[in-house]
Design a protein that fits this description.
The complex is a heterodimer of chains A (279) and B (278). Helix content of chain A is 35%, strand content 22%. Chain A contains 9 helices and 9 strands. In chain A, the strands form 2 sheets. In chain A, strands 5-6-7-3-8-9 form a 6-stranded mixed sheet, sandwiched between helices. In chain A, a hairpin with a 4-residue loop joins strand 8 and strand 9. In chain A, helix 4 packs parallel to helix 6. Chain A is globular. Chain B is an all-alpha fold and 278 residues long. In chain B, helix 4 packs across helix 10 and helix 6 packs across helix 7. The chains are: A alpha/beta (279), B mainly alpha (278). At the A-B interface, strand 5 and helix 4 of A face helix 8 and helix 9 of B. The complex binds adenosine-5'-diphosphate (ADP) and magnesium ion. Magnesium ion (MG) binds next to helix 2 of chain A.
Chain lengths: 279, 278
Amino acid sequence: MTPAPAVAAAPGAADIVAASAASGGTAISVADLMVRFEGAAGGVTALDRVGFDVPEGGLVTMLGPSGCGKSTLLRAVADLVPIGGGKIRVFGRTPEQARLARDFAFVFQDATLLPWRSALDNVRLPLEVGRRDGDLDQYAEPEELLALVGLRGREDALPHELSGGMRQRVAIARALVCRPRVLLMDEPFGALDELTRDKLNEELLRIWRETGTTIMFVTHSVPEAAFLGEKCLVLSAQPGRVREYVDIGFPSPRALGMRDTLEFVQVTAHLRGLIEEAQ
Amino acid sequence: MTTAGVGGRGAVAGPEPADAHAVRAERAQFRRHAPAIVTAVAMLGLWQLVVTGFGVPTYIAPSPVQVAQVFVEQGDVLWINFWPTLLEAMAGFALGNTIAVLLAVWFVHNRLAERAFYPIAVFVNTIPIIAVAPILVLMLGNGYAPKIVIAALICFFPTLVNMVRGLKAVSPQMLELMRVLSASDREILWKIRLQSSLPFLFAALKIASTTCVIGAIVGEWIGSNYGLGSLIIEATYNFRAPLLYATVILGAGLAVAAFTTTSLIERRVLKWKPGAVF
Ligand SMILES: Nc1ncnc2c1ncn2[C@@H]1O[C@H](COP(=O)(O)OP(=O)(O)O)[C@@H](O)[C@H]1O
Ligand SMILES: [Mg+2]
């Protein structure tokens, strides 16, 4: 694990240190979270009293019926959605403080690359914007990250010259360049074909082991959630609530062949049952 | 088919040097443009035949040969009047597009400014340039100034509209990414918005590169004694049809050259594929 970025410059530094000391091994803690969207038709409650913890270095997947608030939950943690109640802490900091400290990175369903920038320059983007006073040397080398995601030799390729899977690899490298302590991924492989998705699942597990990053991973694929997750958070819909926080508990490292075992099928059957009840 | 033909086919199927590829591409391009070239030459020939065959008086319609003679014999008159028009068109192009781009940047960052000024810009655009020109001549006098402003005015609106659209053509997801990175509005403008607006900007600049020439010429129609516009008026009133035609051709040539230059710059600058969404 890399040292945490200096917290001295962040607002309310004293509270943060105290809070981190108290959290002890918890990367993300969410308690009593409420998120409402006000609209013309009275608004919707997207999340209602959601609470759970993600352990430091853990990999938690999120499942739930479409529209149950998985993206909203992830975006609330990332300070992209204002919360209407409850508490979110990322290593003891509020989402805003964590965002300013670059504690987390976000990977979207689309790679969201700049089409005029080469793969390497896309990975460099986070180093060029936002607060970057002094802590630049703590960040990873973009070239090494492209190698880590298996794109050595394609540094100069423009996004339109890469396949969908390769573009998503670039997006992952870009997310890792600031050595985030948490990686928030919203259906990152949802738009890829199954073979590419399998390959990237294995690679994500390898990257997770090598970097020790805490990962929250939203998916609508039950096998993907069971294969990747140490734990799986199942949400129910309208309003989004925690249905069950399932311990998956397969040993690591996991291989794709594991998906044909009886235990795996039992886990996926259990998850499927939960989602059907949640609908 | 002959044996030679079969042999030729075999040669094409095999690996060929890069030069051969280039030569083939050039030939293909010629073949593509050939119909247009042939048609144009034929029409010129027909024009010449009709004018000489029916004895059409020169002041009604000159023959192509007579027009060509003007370029040789009165070339100095044409060039003396060409440079002011070129200068006005280029200055107007620079002025109109710069103001349009700056306003677009302001509009994108300030909803109130957009709501306050955009409708006025639309209104100004609906006034025909021919009607605005005399007003500007009254206001700015007889020199270069009114022509430059007219050329600028005619460029301004398409660039403003396109640039506002281009600066806003950033995906919401890219903006969220920038927010996660705590990027400032200035960084988003320089790193994202300006680049992604380039295809829109060049579409507008290509329009502007021809309309700015029209603007300069229209400006010179009213109270001017130099420039291609004034030459057009003078040649018309003196029934010097060959000079009139030569002047029009020179003006059109200027517009085509400006358009081609803009297109070449676009091809240099836009190496990436616009329109593709990632
Ligand atoms: N920006 C928004 N404005 C209004 N409603 C929203 C917004 N984002 C999400 N919602 C609503 O919140 C609920 C949860 O959405 P979302 O988190 O995207 O679900 P999921 O990712 O699980 O499919 C849905 O009912 C959706 O319509
Ligand atoms: Mg979603």
